[in-house]
Amino acid sequence: MKTYATDDPNVAIAEWHASGRVISNGNPYDMSYTTFVTFRDGLILNYREYWNPMAFTAAMAGTRFDNSAK
Predict the structure, then answer these.
(1) Successive 10-residue mean pLDDT values, the chain, 70 residues
(2) pTM (predicted TM-score)
(3) What residues make up the domain containing 24?
(4) What domain count does the chain have?
């Protein structure tokens, strides 16, 4: 993980990575993320995360999503 200093002590920015295999289809999962978090009074006020939907789609290829179990 790499973190970045900001001029605002209430804002945190980090880049991080996750990898593994999708259990349902065996495809590799390899994703980088960038996260921006804003805090107020020690609580998370805003959380934004950026990632590559194309990499997610490739990893999930052949996987069926079942929304019936709610």
Answers:
(1) 96 97 91 97 97 90 62
(2) 0.73
(3) 2-60
(4) 1
